[in-house]
Amino acid sequence: MNDAYGGLGALSLLARGLAGVDVEVQALTGAGTRAVLTGRKLLLPEGTGEPGLRRAMLAHAVAHLRHSRPARPAHGLKPMGIAVVSAIEDARVERLLWRDFPGLHGWFAASLPPASDPLDLRFAALVSRMDRLLLLPDAIDDNHWVNKARRLFDETAASAGLEDYDAFRAIASILANDLGQMRVRFEPQHYAVPAPWRDDNSYLWEFAETETAPDEAIALQQAGARPPPPSDAPDEGSGPPTSDAADDIELGRYTYPEWDRKLERLRPDWCTVIEKLPAWQGLLPGREQAAPGNGRIAPLALPRARHLDRTHRLRRQWEGDDIDLNAAIEVLVDRSLRLRPDARLFMRPGKGPRPSSVLVLLDLSASANDPGPHAASLLDIEKQAALLLAASNARGIDRLAIHGFSSNTRAEVYYYRLLEAGRPLDAPTSAMIGALRGRYSTRMGAALRHAAALMQAEPPGQRAVLLVTDGAPSDIDVHDPQYLIEDARQAVAEARDAGVRAACIAVDGAADAYVRRIFGWRNYCIADDARSLPVRLARMSARLAAAH
User: Fold this and answer.
1) What is the pLDDT of residue 412?
2) Which residues sit opposite 346 in a β-bridge?
3) pLDDT surpasses 90 at 488
4) What is the rounded CA–CA span in Å between residue 100 and residue 102?
5) Pairing with 489, which of 178, 233, 342, 349 sits 20 to 30 Å away (CA)?
6) What is the average pLDDT across 205-232?
7) Rounded Cα gap, residues 530 and 370, in angstroms
């Protein structure tokens, strides 16, 4: 048989490559256990009786022995980096092996597990999809990260060559960083290398005594995430204590549809909104929770909203849509007494107080933490503006609510209820708003739908949602920049049909195109300077409360 078909030449390669290596079959424990290659010993798990899978395991071990340098120091690498670098190294050495012995490619391809669910965005599923694309040139995948992995791998192989380990280590770092930005979750106790013929990669790494070996925890950690500090130790850094979303107080879960612009239909029950109260309330004294540069917050003098109200009638008018009966009777009396009658015989609706409810929805995504040109972050200014508006509530809007949101994929749209409509701004609420921290992304449509649903429970009158944001809607599981814009536009239309007006203040000089697309030309304003946000928020809120 020819080597191209994995015949005698390939078998001879295995014999030579494994010369001096003890190959043993042992009952290795653990779900999804893989082979273990350590030094000059290869342990194969029981239950791999299929000759094809057993041959692929042996061939992969030979690939490492021929092309990988063992026991590289893992110092400085996070578990996320170790896992991704190992996966890229597996693909590199296998490609080197089948470049020299093309028939071995079929051994690996025949052992591929079934394709992962396209909606599965967990770490093991993404790595499995990457393995498939790197092994099968004709395979396709619609995930941005997986396609980026194949593109970087192929470009590096063409420019630097498959022998350049450092070049492939560099692209693995890029991919690991992307996964951290995507906040892909990982369950270390359930993780196994997805490809069943590959070993656990302990051959590749050397760990110091203080480091964690890969068979104990090759875990993908979220970028920037920190383990919870001990109860008697302060948090890192000089800033106020913060809390992950998992520590917040959950109030309820709600599902909402999402508009697919390509299918031109709503995907039912597509997004999950998780209502929460922040767990960081009351952590700091009020003076430490104020935004940088904030002094005493003085209430803004907002005009009382007045509306054309048909229940409030103005009598004795020169013109109108109805007769003032009292005035008509007086005209008849005057005529009988031969007096000159008053010609003001009509009634018309007058402008009188009318209930108004406004919900201010704050964008609490991670980008709001970025410091602006004047040191204070947008989130600091958002909090100051919200507190100013709440302190002015009695002078303008009847019922003011302040909520916030952020998102971590469609499965986790976090919605924070900070100040409820009809409640005054008290010290605990001020402390809770002052301690807010931005995180995650901006899935605007789901948050707008939930806010509009809450506003429908408000008393009849003018009801509005005012969104404050610093950028276009986005989330880590969506790579089409127009997808979430069109969904937010659909959410605004749904709110309007339900009698809730939606408007926006965008602190983004380039926001005109997308906010006009989402909210319409009358329902937004752009604050080029974030410092003008408090005044703009007060004016827009009063305008929404007075609109009819």
Assistant:
1) 93
2) 317, 323
3) yes
4) 6
5) 178
6) 44
7) 12
For tokens 């602006």, the residue is: 372
How far, in Å, CA of 176 to CA of 218, rounded? 13
User: CA angle at residue 462 from 459 to 466, to 5 degrees?
Assistant: 110
Element of type H or E holding 515: helix 512-519
Instruction: Give Cβ neighbours of residue 454 (< 8 Å, ≥ 6 apart).
Output: 359, 401, 403
CA atoms of 366 and 439, how far apart (whole Å): 4
Strands (E), 248-380: 249-260, 265-277, 306-317, 322-323, 346-353, 356-363
How far is it, in rounded angstroms, from Cα 9 to Cα 59? Answer: 12
What strands, in cross-sheet order, belong to the sheet with 306-317?
306-317, 346-353, 322-323
Q: Which amino acid is at 279?
A: A
In 10 A of CB 239, how many CB atoms?
Answer: 10
Q: What 3-state class would DSSP assign to 23?
A: strand
Token couple for 367: 């980008």
- Looking only at the bridges linking them, the beta strands covering 306-317 and 346-353 are antiparallel
Angle between helix 79-100 and 51-67 (nearest 10): 100
Determine the Cα–Cα distance for residues 302 and 405; give it in Å rounded to an integer. Answer: 26
Cβ 93 vs Cβ 64: under 8 Å: yes
Look at residue 276 and give its three-state secondary structure: strand
CB 425 within 8 A of CB 286: no
- Grouping H, G, I as helix, E, B as strand and the rest as coil, residue 112 is coil
* 437 or 283, higher pLDDT: 437
pTM check: above 0.85:
no
Q: Which of 427, 432, 439, 434 is nearest to 417 (CA)?
A: 432
- Are the beta carbons of 211 and 71 closer than 8 angstroms? no
Tell me: the pLDDT tens digits for 444-485?
A: 999 999 999 999 988 887 899 999 998 899 998 888 889 999
Where residue 219 falls (left for φ over 0; alpha for ψ -120 to 50; beta otherwise) is beta
DSSP state of 120: -
490-519: average pLDDT: 92
* 421's tokens: 């409509």
- What share of residues in the chain are helix, strand, coil (percent, to 5)? 40, 20, 40
Please tell me the number of Cα atoms within 13 Å of 435 on its side-chain side: 22
Element (H, E) at 418: strand 413-419
Note whether 81 and 176 are within 8 A (CB).
Answer: yes
Query: Token pair of 396, please?
Result: 């303008």
pLDDT of residue 22: 60
How many Å is the maximal CA-CA distance in the chain? 131
Tell me, what's the pLDDT at 21? 58
